[in-house]
């Protein structure tokens, strides 16, 4: 990892920590309802479409951690990080396509980091608590340093949202087993516009979801 990449990751972590530190102390201290949850999951990494073919990311094991705290009745705010060590390969659409493409033969290591902040809503069912929520933040696609036909790999940052749902099994007052599934969607914005017409003025943005990823996993939730 280059020093520039490390600086960007450190900056993202610092921004997330500042967001948590800005939360009112009364919320964080409420019944000391703070949990730390290391997680492990299996991620379906998806693929990214180009003009000549797909850049496919290899599925694999993802590791992460969640810091949660009570924000309101049956609502928890969560700060999370997760990382998948994957490989990116190029699959042309047609057999005769790709000899002139700089992506032909692409096969490089790729790390995918998600930095998220959001909230989940729990349904109080005693020892078993279903939950559903949404988070937002950033995703970093970090390839290994390579050059292909004069093209150099580089980090790619995108805004991302995640939808999460699952169950928490409370095994004791301080320890619980969390099982969850997530739908991860990086989003890019290609432009913005301002329109003025007979109906008034409007503003908007254009963009899309270049890749959809999902994971299913579990973690041990520890109350501190």
Tags for this model:
224 residues, mainly beta, two-stranded antiparallel sheet, 2 helices, 13 strands, elongated
Explain what you see.
It contains two helices and 13 strands; from the N terminus they run ααβββββββββββββ. The chain has a single domain, classed as Porin (Beta Barrel). The strands form two sheets. It has an eight-stranded antiparallel barrel with strand order 1-4-5-6-7-10-11-13. Strand 6 and strand 7 form a beta hairpin. The radius of gyration is 20 Å and the shape is elongated. By secondary structure, the protein is mainly β.
Q: Helix and strand layout, with pairings?
A:
Layout: H1 3-21, H2 25-29, E1 34-44, E2 47-49, E3 53-57, E4 60-72, E5 75-92, E6 107-122, E7 128-143, E8 147-148, E9 151-152, E10 156-170, E11 175-197, E12 200-208, E13 213-223
Antiparallel strand pairs: 1-4, 1-13, 2-3, 3-5, 4-5, 5-6, 6-7, 7-10, 8-9, 10-11, 11-12, 11-13
Residue share in helix: 10-25%
Q: What is the CATH architecture annotation?
A: Beta Barrel
Total domain count: 1
CATH class annotation = Mainly Beta
Question: Averaged pLDDT, please?
Answer: 79
The CATH topology comes to: Porin
């Amino acid at each position: 990892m280059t020093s520039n990449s490390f600086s960007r990751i450190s900056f993202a972590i610092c921004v997330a920590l500042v967001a948590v530190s800005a939360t009112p102390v009364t919320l964080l201290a409420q019944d000391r309802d703070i949990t730390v949850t290391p997680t492990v999951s299996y991620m379906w990494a998806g693929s990214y479409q180009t003009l000549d073919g797909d850049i496919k990311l290899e599925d694999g094991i993802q590791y992460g951690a969640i810091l949660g705290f009570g924000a309101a009745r049956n609502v928890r705010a969560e700060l999370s990080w997760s990382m998948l060590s994957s490989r990116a390969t190029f699959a042309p659409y047609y057999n005769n396509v790709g000899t002139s493409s700089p992506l032909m033969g692409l096969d490089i290591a790729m790390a995918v980091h998600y930095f998220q902040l959001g909230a989940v809503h729990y349904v109080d069912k005693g020892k078993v608590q279903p939950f559903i929520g949404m988070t937002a933040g950033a995703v970093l696609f970090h390839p290994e340093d390579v050059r292909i036909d004069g093209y150099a790999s580089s980090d790619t940052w995108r805004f991302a949202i995640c939808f999460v749902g699952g169950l928490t099994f409370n095994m004791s007052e301080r320890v619980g087993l969390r099982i969850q599934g997530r739908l991860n969607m990086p989003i890019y914005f290609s432009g913005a516009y301002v329109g003025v017409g007979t109906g008034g003025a409007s503003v908007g943005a254009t963009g899309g979801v270049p890749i959809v990823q999902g994971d299913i996993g579990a973690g041990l939730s520890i109350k501190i």
